[in-house]
Amino acid sequence: xxxxxxxxxxxxxxxxxxxxxxxxxxxxxxxxxxxxxxxxxxxxxxxxxxxxxxxxxxxxxxxxxxxxxxxxxxxxxxxxxxxxxxxxxxxxxxxxxxxxxxxxxxxxxxxxxxxxxxxxxxxxxxxxxxxxxxxxxxxxxxxxxxxxxxxxxxxxxxxxxxxxxxxxxxxxxxxxxxxxxxxxxxxxxxxxxxxxxxxxxxxxxxxxxxxxxxxxxxxxxxxxxxxxxxxxxxxxxxxxxxxxxxxxxxxxxxxxxxxxxxxxxxxxxxxxxxxxxxxxxxxxxxxxxxxxxxxxxxxxxxxxxxxxxxxxxxxxxxxxxxxxxxxxxxxxxxxxxxxxxxxxxxxxxxxxxxxxxxxxxxxxxxxxxxxxxxxxxxxxxxxxxxxxxxxxxxxxxxxxxxxxxxxxxxxxxxxxxxxxxxxxxxxxxxxxxxxxxxxxxxxxxxxxxxxxxxxxxxxxxxxxxxxxxxxxxxxxxxxxxxxxxxxxxxxxxxxxxxxxxxxxxxxxxxxxxxxxxxxxxxxxxxxxxxx
Length: 531
Prior knowledge:
The protein is 68% helix and 8% strand. The protein has 531 residues and is an alpha/beta fold. The strands form two sheets. It has a four-stranded mixed β-sheet with strand order 1-2-3-4. Strands 5-6-7-8 form a four-stranded mixed β-sheet.
């Protein structure tokens, strides 16, 4: 079986079949080419009768596709000395000289194996004795400790975040140096103990960095006074967490620095708590004032007369006094000015409303007088006057302020006036249209003789033809038939066509149904223009 990189072994029969399929499919002109494959001394040997570069490339592609990991060689099927390709890049001359059935391969391999073992042994012995602190006196530990102590002495004079990070780098470098001491060294135990200590120092310096960062956070927040209760609580938590972190610091050379920071942090923690208490009191005063304002706003919704307005006015004055009692240097005090201005605005609005109420009543009375005039005009079918009065009444009622006691009544009145105005406008428009239609019909029916009578409503025009007029048309038609007077006949037809056009014209212009009746009041024609 042939080994592949994907873990699936490939048999020689399958591989040979692949080769033959390639030849029969893509190299039909090479029907005499012979090909075989087998294993020989850990080589996959492929025999081929002719050196055809295109075929060799296809064979290598197949082997690549199967990810074959065995070394392979392609040579002539008749002469094994003729080699076309070797996967490990051996030259043709090398392979020619090699005898894959010769036992010398075993001897060479054995010698190489012995040399490899000896080399590994020499390297191992060299590695064992050249590691730090294996031979002679161990100076690495002392040198590392000295270097770290000197770095701490230098950087603790003016300790800041940058210096602390520098100390951590020194500690980590020292730890890495001590880790080079192997387990077979007599100093390994001492090195391990130092590593544990320095790792703990790195962790403590991390805590110190966090404490300093929290200190900066607290200072950053308190640079923008006043703060809210939540913000002061965060500041307090920052200081408390800083105290907890710096208390973990046991490095001897940093104890003075630790104590200075503890004194500062404890002092700031007390200040933060004082401000929390002060902020709570200010916030309580603010809430009380706001609650009173909410009560006033609720009472405003139930106002029904002028006395109620005066009571609300006095309540706003009380709320304003409570807002003024808020202490300075608090977050609530920062809101004091805007809230106070708002309450003053509300007080002024109440005072304005008293004047509005009186004005509203007068406006309503004036609107009611105008309404009565409009109704009288409608009774007399004086639609032009009625529309004018309704428009005046609408303008007057719209002047009534919407925040007055009679706002609801005025809105209802406004809606009724609007409906009456729309109705009056429609009646006026229809009256104008009827007047226009009447003038048109007067021309059509009575211009030279009485041709018809008519009636007009909002939806239709009814035309009643005159008996004498119809008799005249009939007589002329009969006479023209007897005399064959074409000119007279054409004149009658033209007249009839014009009459029909007149009726159609009325229907189109006014978008109304035109009904034509005979003298016996029977419907004989309808003109209905779609619209």
